[in-house]
Amino acid sequence: MCQQWDLRRDKVEASSLRADPRKHWSLFKSLSGKNSRPPPNQPISFKGKTHTKASAIARGFGRLFTSAAPHKSYKRARKVKRSLFSRHKLDPSFAPFSTADTLSAINAAKSSSAVGPDSLTAIHLKNLGHRGLEYLTKLFNLSVSNADLPAIWKAAVFIPVLKPGKPASEGASYRPILLLSPAVKVLELLLLPYVTADLPKAPSQHDQINKQNRRIVY
């Protein structure tokens, strides 16, 4: 244990905060045992089977993170969906967003450098010129008016992050970080006021207990 602490102390003393602050804080994070990506060439096991190739490990994480309950189709749900589409016709001329709205939503978004599946970051959007904002606004309006999203906006990049104190050799020791396209995040900010306008607001975020008859009311 003493040897391990001496090694950590030597690493900290050898690092320079002024030379490269990012490396300095990355060193502190790694020494503290906080969340981190799996080290290179790290064999990882999924359901008792160990993989060493990067492609096999990626497929293992894909199955682990995307496992979901099987979809079930209900007759009543299909009927309601058909009724909604018959009563609400799509309007190609519907354009609720202006360039100013798009710019305001982009400025409200976080200045993240995380790269989405379209190889863009939020910083790229924050540096768009006037023509770029016009094009993006037109794309948002077309998406909403046609009730359709571009395929790239439905894609995501999964990054496995090691949980604190968990063995790096087990697939279940990792949690996923989901990186979406920054453009679709801006679209979510634009749509939020329209979605929440007609939704009733709950008095609180938790269930309220009726003390008289001891039943839960919402």
What's the total helix number?
Answer: 9
How much strand? 5-15%
In whole angstroms, the N-to-C terminal distance is: 54 Å
Q: How many domains is the backbone divided into?
A: 2
Which residue ranges are poorly predicted, with pLDDT under 50 across at least 5 consecutive positions? 1-5, 207-218
Mean pLDDT: 78
Neighbour order of strands in the largest sheet: 1-2
The largest sheet is: 2 strands, antiparallel
Shape: globular
Number of strands: 6
Q: Which structural class do the helices and strands define?
A: mainly alpha
Radius of gyration: 24 Å
Order of helices and strands: HHEEHHHHHHEEHEE
Q: What is the helix content?
A: 40-55%
What features would you describe in this structure?
- This protein is mainly alpha-helical and 218 residues long.
- It folds into 2 domains: 1-32, no CATH class; 38-66 and 90-194, no CATH class.
- The protein is 46% helix and 11% strand.
- It has 9 helices and 6 strands; from the N terminus they run ααββααααααββαββ.
- The strands form 3 sheets. Strands 1-2 form a two-stranded antiparallel sheet.
- A hairpin with a 2-residue loop joins strand 1 (44-46) and strand 2.
- The radius of gyration is 24 Å and the shape is globular.
- The chain starts with a helix and ends with a strand.
- Mean pLDDT is 78; it is low at 1-5 and 207-218.
List key phrases describing it:
single chain; 218 residues; mainly alpha; 2 domains; two-stranded antiparallel ribbon; two-stranded antiparallel sheet; 6 strands; 46% helix; globular; disordered N terminus; disordered C terminus
